[in-house]
Write a structure and sequence with these properties.
Elements: H1 11-30, H2 32-59, H3 67-72, H4 80-115, H5 122-159, H6 170-177, H7 199-240
Helix pairs in contact: 2-4, 4-5, 5-6, 5-7
């Protein structure tokens, strides 16, 4: 056991020093702390997607702005529209919970894969391992959310009424941080709705959104390949640069 304080030895400080300080410094030296911070942040985010998705699904049903009051018990919505809204409520609730679970599962698995990679240095772990994985994660999460929106839009066209979609704004949020993705906002409606008088229009919206989800997924895999290529070029350029050294000559003079 290493002694902590100079000149004196106190069991309390020595034990704390050897139990907490030295292991922490060791983890800093081998990089486990940095790796743990990154993977723990992703793990917390995955739980946030699951819990947050379920929370939004439940709370979005009730209140003055809730789906039940606006589209189920609303006296202005009658007949087939009301029946369609009730069906849309059931379909949307189930689809939203499944989507939240899917988002959680994808991020959880990708985090486990990242955690299993060998840590050889902070720069390598961040730029060679973490960032490529994050690009894929964003693309896969966005793919799931676009599928969610598109399927609910197809349901809405089939029931000819409103469908509950509490996670509708999630794709727009993610697209806001992804370059070049804003063009796909046109496939995300402000509200999931269908009408038999314009059945073909609403059905086409869902089908086009479904096709767009695969295009987005392919785009993010291309982003990952482009990033890896640029990183490789930068690494090779750095290796190609000449290494400058200042020659030093030490002369010894022998005096007789």
């Amino acid at each position: 056991m290493e002694k902590n304080l100079p000149f004196v030895s106190l069991s309390f400080t020595d034990n704390a020093y050897n139990k907490f300080i030295l292991p922490f410094l060791g983890k800093l030296d081998d990089g486990n702390v940095f790796k743990k911070i990154i993977t723990l942040s992703l793990s917390i985010s995955s739980l946030g997607l699951l819990i947050g998705g379920i929370y939004l699904t439940i709370t979005g049903l009730f209140g003055d702005d809730g789906f039940i009051k606006n589209f189920v018990t609303n006296e202005m919505i009658v007949g087939g529209k009301k029946v369609g809204s009730i069906v849309g409520l059931l379909l949307g609730s189930v689809a939203s919970i499944i989507t939240a679970w899917s988002l959680f599962s994808v991020l959880k698995k990708r985090t486990e894969q990242l955690n299993g990679l060998e840590y050889t240095g902070l720069l390598d772990f961040v730029f060679n391992k973490t960032l490529p994985k994050l690009i894929l994660i964003i693309g896969e999460l966005l793919f799931i959310l676009l599928i969610y929106v598109s399927v609910l839009q197809i349901f809405a066209s089939l029931v000819g009424s409103y469908v509950y979609a509490p996670l509708l704004r999630f794709p727009t949020i993610i697209m806001g941080i992804a370059p070049g993705m804003q063009m796909f906002n046109q496939f995300i409606p402000n509200q999931i709705y269908g009408d038999y008088d314009h059945f073909d229009v609403y059905l086409k919206m869902g089908v086009l959104g479904f096709a767009a989800s695969f295009i987005v997924l392919i785009a993010f895999y291309l982003y990952k390949e482009v990033y890896s290529y640029i990183l490789k070029l930068a690494t090779n350029l750095i290796d190609f640069l000449p290494k400058f050294a200042l020659p030093l000559a030490i002369r010894r003079r022998n005096e007789n």
